[in-house]
Amino acid sequence: MLITVININFKKERLFMSKLLDKFMLALLVFSMLLPAVAFADELVIYSARKEHLIQPLIDAYSAETGTEISFITDKAGPLLQRLKAEGKNTHADLLITVDAGNLWHAASEGMLQPVSSAILERNIPIHLRDPAGHWFGLSERARTIVYSTERVKPAELSSYEALGDKSWRHRLLLRTSKKVYNQSLIAMLIAEHGQAQTEQVVRSWVGNLATSPFSNDTKLMEAILAGQGDVGIVNTYYFGRLQKKNPELKLALFWPNQQTGGVHINVSGAGVTRHAKNRSGAIRFLEWLSSEKAQNLFADANMEYPVNPQVKAHPAVAAWGSFKPSTQNLADAGRLQSDAIMLMDRAGYR
Ligand code: FE
């Protein structure tokens, strides 16, 4: 009898325990279902025309600091913008990172970015390096400047972009193709400064001085100077930096033109929050972090660029190229006048 009672009690106990276990398992299941939802809320998706090896260190640092999960795809600016446009409302992208104000402006004008107002971004990024309406923000700065052969050119012979059209440079000038957005932005900024007619004269004078047809990229242009095909050209500073890193004895140097006038043409790589961002606040927080003192060197140094935040010093290898007066014209002009620039270069015979 006693044994039966104990047995019944034992059975009851087991039943109670198993119900408790069921409840625990259910709670665990509910909890585990909630977990990804929590993580998802702080997930950020980036479309980047800046290459993976340049943005991965930033993403790693930000994730480690904040626990934010970041996924990204990289592609060239054109296909990335096409994709963003085609995806419309269904896009997963929260943030678009790309190079050249011309591309950023284009993305904004096509309605792919949304305006952001942030005291942090406005404090960290000078006004000429961001969209006045807040659709995009420059995050690193590059100069598009003159490069010359140290064997055949004295810096005193150089003065301005415009003067590269002087007779003294006949059959000595090398240019990259006019199809590249970097040159379209450069010409657009010249139009903003001088107007169409004068800029067209300048471009015609350059074309008349070309030593050979335009190159597909800045590196080939510099290699052609080294090979003696020409003596001067126009390139982005970081391409010069890459060559110099490979060969410190490079017989090339950078020249800072237009120091008495409008300053050196600069451009940016930058970012904007996509119009249909699912995580707008997360995207803004990441942008603000990218503009901060702790992230600016990570962003700029990886590609031998200049930080946009005036509080942050350039990497010593970059600073060694010397200081210069940059143009402070708003880079939105590079986008606004881009189609004018393309037509002008075509009229002037710049291919
Ligand atoms: Fe580039």
Give a quick summary of the entry.
The chain has 351 residues and is an alpha/beta fold. The chain folds into 2 domains: 40-141 and 268-312, 3-Layer(aba) Sandwich (D-Maltodextrin-Binding Protein, domain 2); 142-265 and 335-346, D-Maltodextrin-Binding Protein, domain 2, CATH 3.40.190.10.
Helix/strand layout:
Blueprint: H1 2-41, E1 43-48, H2 52-66, E2 69-74, H3 77-87, E3 95-99, H4 101-109, H5 119-124, E4 137-149, E5 173-174, H6 181-194, H7 196-209, H8 218-226, E6 232-236, H9 237-246, E7 252-255, E8 265-273, H10 280-290, H11 293-301, E9 306-307, H12 316-319, H13 332-336, H14 338-347
Parallel strand pairs: 1-2, 1-3, 5-6
Antiparallel strand pairs: 3-8, 4-6, 4-7, 4-8, 4-9
Helix pairs in contact: 6-7, 6-14, 7-14
This protein binds fe (iii) ion.
Explain this structure to me?
With 351 residues, this protein is α/β, with parallel strands linked by helices. It folds into two domains: 40-141 and 268-312, Periplasmic binding protein-like II (D-Maltodextrin-Binding Protein, domain 2); 142-265 and 335-346, 3-Layer(aba) Sandwich (D-Maltodextrin-Binding Protein, domain 2), CATH 3.40.190.10. It has helices spanning 2-41, 52-66, 77-87, 101-109, 119-124, 181-194, 196-209, 218-226, 237-246, 280-290, 293-301, 316-319, 332-336, 338-347; strands at 43-48, 69-74, 95-99, 137-149, 173-174, 232-236, 252-255, 265-273, 306-307. Strands 1, 2, 3, 4, 5, 6, 7, 8 and 9 form a nine-stranded mixed beta sheet that branches. Helix 6 (181-194) packs across helix 7 (196-209). The radius of gyration is 27 Å and the shape is globular. The model is unreliable at 1-8 and 28-40 (pLDDT under 50). Fe (iii) ion binds next to loops.
